[in-house]
Design a protein that fits this description.
heterodimer; A: alpha/beta; 5-stranded parallel beta sheet; globular; B: 430 residues; alpha/beta; Rossmann fold; 6-stranded parallel beta sheet; 4-stranded parallel beta sheet; 14 strands
């Protein structure tokens, strides 16, 4: 038993719903009690879908438990097939139905429904949403993909995008364009947009582009073994990764690399002088393994950031993320406990968080800017405009997204120049963000923590709000006052550096002198 | 401005009972507003990852912090009997309470999986009470989907609190049902102005203010879904004051009148107290009625508020109800409402969502009140919708909110009228 307050992933049957909802002509009969239908609103509200997810819930109640829940399941299957006329059915159990052991697969099989029935075995008490997407897609592919002749033109399948994915919709468009420039066609995109009949012809492609290992790696491996289709290992998020991806496609297909980088702006934007202020910004990365790995490379090589820490919530990616962390000289945080993530961020005091919607809220509480790079998603992560993460346009989008939460470059210089100015002071916040102008209030020097979390909607709940790790160290009041003159977006770093420096020197009372000695020590 | 009483009303209208797929929340959802109301309470769901995910999805991220609710997620080893789930639960609770000294009431909330494996939370609560009293009182109820629909979770929670209330012989009025504090204060002010003293609320904002109950207690329900709580209070000797529910000017007036009669408030005083707020409510409703009048409304079952709201919309806002669906129809509590609701609409209880959708599509109501899972799909089919959950999360009771309540229904219609029509090509694309 484990106490959970907020979760990064839903149960595995929600993963199966993401696959089913992404597809067309497929229906999911889910043996589940009333209430599990809440999952529909994830799709209709967060993703603004204009159709109900293709899911029929058996909706059993307490009084059914002693009676015939298996009968309910069979009725639901029969009704779903008649009403929605799907090309194939996936059947499975949610957490509660797993306990009553009705065997949805066996029941549906015995019914001669006249369409392929794909049973799902998703252990709700061991696995999570990511496993649910991967396993469901694997089972669909295993049951439906047939040996077929390769297409005359060199083609690829794009596999992995699902409903409720982080920018999956636009990544498909961007990748299709990248491949077209190389002369590679797209055979099937799946699960997103595919019908069961499209899954049947997956084998016609010459190779698979594995867009999101979280959702389709098992299927990619099965297709490799069964149809001898190689799959790409590089996820083209970022400029460097996109170049490497195209080189990988060239290796697989024997085609020369062709890339139209005329619409790529990140390299110049990051080299223009305004971007100097990005140099060495300490960032903390957290999300699903794939997006974190891609973001780490972009952060270091393409933005000139300093990766202060990284981690992922999906244990399936623990190994590669630990390896990656080693390359970056940091300790990987593999956890789905947001309190642990919050503690890590509070201890590291990064200048920018690249995380999920969960870290965005942690950032609000700690007063640290955050840009979202990964699922779990929020209605904000489905913008009306085209905004992929992959390919050239993805790199442009990422540059804008990551820089936006920061105070702008020139503004940062001005704040340094006019620090402590009566009108132009840091607590007014970044000028391109909303919120009223706050006149500066001169507080007595001994006031302890100036950085109150801005959006702490529940004051009683913040008992765990991490205190700065001062230990036995004391900030003398002059030093504390001086610290407050440092702009807020570097104040956390200054505090941490000073304390580290003092710790190293065995200093326990931090004075203004210590502060500036530390500043000189860490100068770069 | 009340409409005349209907000739027949819906008291004897046959009810269409349906069983099938239900597009509703389970009772766990009530935790979202109950934990805001009870400021020193923690709600610990004993359940699965699905329960945690539901709470997170229903709550959104509006109240993101270290919340006063959480889920003790059952794992494989709990189910396989490799560990004693009760011991595990003790450990998690002890850890939680040591980290949160501000918690004075802990609710162990049963879920579908905990009910199916018959994890005895009653026993757990008794054991924990022994360990953590008097600082923390531990109670238990079930919010599982196999037993409760959406607002029934609040009913189960309040019903579980009743046996623990201290006994009293004092003549007191108890207001039952969680209301936003601002609304509760308005109600208390109105009652106080009528000279009714000794008014207590269940649930109280803090455990130290918990009401007492006994044979001289009379109680009024502010929410229509509190059948089990009604029964539990009756068992303690308290007496219910039947009334329509305090939605709209008429509902509020009739609800207050029933209480005033019970306490023998002079009619002149009653009229004097309600005159100004009632006039304000009627004025606010009248402004909105321009949008609603003559329009048809179709309720999918959600919160059990449907019948009182249909009464409000038809009698005070000039709408016509086509179907009024409710997850559960409590005949006794609903009797005063059914008598007011004019005959005509189909009354349905339970749900087979696909059949009900077919009826809604055939009827093409001007406004469909439904859950979040159905709203966008119906909008895409050209039907204006009002998401039902907002009716539970928003202050809508009593005079000062009557206009807001009407406006919640009017806004989707006003929005449709404001937006330029879709280009023909776009409509065709859908």
């Amino acid at each position: 038993m484990k106490l959970t307050l907020w979760t990064y992933e839903g149960p595995p049957h929600v993963g199966a719903m993401r696959v089913a909802t992404g597809m067309k002509g497929l229906h999911y009969v889910l043996h589940a009690p009333q209430g599990d239908t809440y999952a529909d609103l994830l799709f209709t509200m967060i993703e603004r879908r204009d159709h109900r997810p293709p899911v029929t819930y058996t909706t059993f109640q307490a009084r059914d438990l002693g009676a015939d829940t298996a009968g309910l399941f069979k009725t639901a299957c029969k009704d779903a097939v008649e009403r929605f006329a799907p090309e194939a059915l996936i059947v499975g159990a949610s957490c509660t139905a797993e306990l009553i052991q009705d065997d949805p697969g066996g029941l549906a099989d015995s019914m001669a429904l006249g369409i392929p029935v794909i049973p799902l075995d998703l252990p709700s008490y061991q696995r999570k949403e990511g496993f649910g997407t991967d396993e469901t897609f694997l089972q669909i592919v295993r049951h439906l993909a047939k040996p077929v002749a390769r297409t005359a033109q060199i083609t690829a399948n794009l596999i992995g995008p699902t409903a409720l994915g982080f920018r999956h919709r636009d990544d498909i468009t961007e990748l299709t364009r990248l491949l077209a420039e190389m002369g590679v066609g797209v055979n099937v995109v799946a699960p997103m947009g595919a019908r069961p009949s499209d899954i049947a012809r997956l084998g016609a492609a010459h190779f698979n582009v594995l867009m999101y290992p979280e959702h389709a790696e098992s299927a990619a491996r099965w297709l490799e073994t069964t149809f001898k289709q190689p799959f790409t290992k590089i996820v083209p998020i970022g400029v460097g990764a996109t170049h490497d991806f195209l080189a990988e496609v060239a290796r697989i297909t024997g085609l020369p690399v062709k890339a139209d980088t005329s619409r790529l702006r990140l390299p110049w934007w990051t080299r223009s002088v305004d971007s100097t202020y990005l140099t060495g910004k300490r960032v903390f990365l957290f999300g699903d393994g794939t997006h974190v790995a891609a973001a780490a490379r972009i952060a270091r090589e393409e933005m000139g950031f300093d990766v202060a820490g990284l981690g992922c919530f999906n244990r399936e990616m623990a190994r590669p993320i630990r390896q990656l962390a080693k390359d970056y000289g940091v300790e990987a945080l593999i956890s789905d406990d947001y309190l642990e993530v919050e503690a890590a961020i509070a201890a590291l005091q990064p200048e920018l968080i690249l995380g999920t919607q969960m870290e965005r809220h942690i950032g609000k509480r700690l007063g640290i800017p955050c840009a979202v790079i990964s699922a779990p998603v929020h209605v904000q992560d489905f913008p009306a405009r085209y905004s992929p993460q992959m390919g050239w346009e993805g790199a442009n989008v990422i540059f804008d997204t990551w820089v936006h939460p920061l105070v702008m470059g020139l503004e940062e210089h001005l704040l340094h120049m006019f620090r402590d100015d009566f009108e132009f002071h840091d607590e007014a916040g970044a000028s391109h963000h909303g919120g009223a102008h706050k006149p500066r209030v001169d507080t007595p020097a001994q006031t302890a923590e100036p950085e109150t979390p801005m959006m702490n909607a529940e004051p009683v709940a913040s008992t765990e709000a991490p205190a700065p790790q001062t230990g036995e160290m004391v900030w003398l009041s002059d030093a504390e006052k001086e610290l407050k003159k440092i702009p807020f977006f570097v104040r956390g770093k200054a505090r941490r550096n000073t304390e580290n420096y003092a710790l190293g020197k065995g200093v326990t009372a931090i004075s203004v002198e210590t502060l500036y000695e530390a500043k000189a020590h860490y100068a770069r | 401005m009340n409409a005349p009483l209907p000739a027949r009303g819906c008291s004897t209208t046959p009810v269409l009972k349906e069983r099938g797929q239900r597009e509703v929340f389970c009772g766990l959802t009530g935790i979202i507003w109950l934990h805001r109301k009870m400021q020193d309470a923690f709600f610990l769901v004993v359940g699965s990852r699905t329960c945690a995910h539901l709470l997170q999805s229903a709550a959104g991220v509006m109240i993101f912090a270290e919340p006063r609710f959480g889920t003790a997620i059952l794992e494989e080893k709990d189910l396989a009997g490799l560990v004693d789930a009760q011991t595990e639960l003790d450990r998690e609770v002890a850890r939680l309470l040591s980290r949160r000294p501000d918690i004075r009431q802990l609710f162990l909330v049963g879920s579908c999986p905990s009910e199916v494996i018959k994890l005895d939370l009653q026993r757990a609560a008794e054991r924990m009470n022994a360990a953590h009293a008097p600082h923390v009182r531990v109670m238990n109820y079930s919010g599982s989907g196999i037993e409760t629909t959406f607002t029934q979770g609040e009913d189960a929670c309040l019903a579980a609190m009743v046996p623990a209330l201290a006994p009293t012989q004092t003549r007191e009025l108890l207001l039952v049902g969680a209301l936003p504090d601002v609304v509760e204060d308005q109600a208390l002010a109105l009652l106080s102005a009528m000279g009714i003293q000794n008014v207590r609320c269940l649930p109280a904002r803090r455990s130290s203010d918990a009401p007492e109950v006994g044979p001289n207690t009379v109680f009024a329900l502010v929410q229509p879904f509190l059948g089990d709580t009604h029964a539990a209070l009756t068992r303690r000797g308290a007496r219910h004051i039947p009334a329509p529910f305090p939605f709209g000017a008429e509902g509020t007036t009739e609800w207050l009148r029933a209480i005033a009669k019970e306490f023998a408030v002079p009619e002149a005083l009653f009229d004097q107290v309600i005159a100004a707020p009632r006039a304000r409510a009627e004025k606010a409703i009248a402004a909105v009625t321009e949008t609603l009048s003559g329009k048809t409304v179709f309720f999918f079952p959600d919160s059990q508020l449907e019948i009182p709201l249909a009464r409000f919309l038809t009698r005070e806002c000039g709408m016509r109800a086509i179907e009024v669906g409710t997850p559960f129809l409590h005949r006794d509590l609903m009797a005063p409402e059914l008598a007011l609701l004019a005959e005509g609409p189909t009354l349905s209880e339970g749900q087979d969502v696909d059949l009900q959708l077919a009826r809604a599509r055939a009827a093409r109501p001007d406004l469909t009140v439904c859950g979040l899972g159905l709203a966008n799909p119906l909008e895409a089919e050209g039907l204006a919708t009002k998401w039902a959950i907002e009716l539970v999360f928003t202050p809508v009771h009593f005079y000062e909110q009557a206009g807001d309540l009407a406006a919640l229904f009017a806004r989707p219609l006003r929005r449709r009228a404001l937006l330029a029509p879709l280009a023909p090509a776009m409509e065709a694309a859908e």
